[in-house]
Amino acid sequence: MMTTDCFALMGWMGWLMPLAVLLLLGLGISALVKYLLTSRHPQEDRS
Question: What is the model's pTM?
Answer without folding.
Answer: 0.55
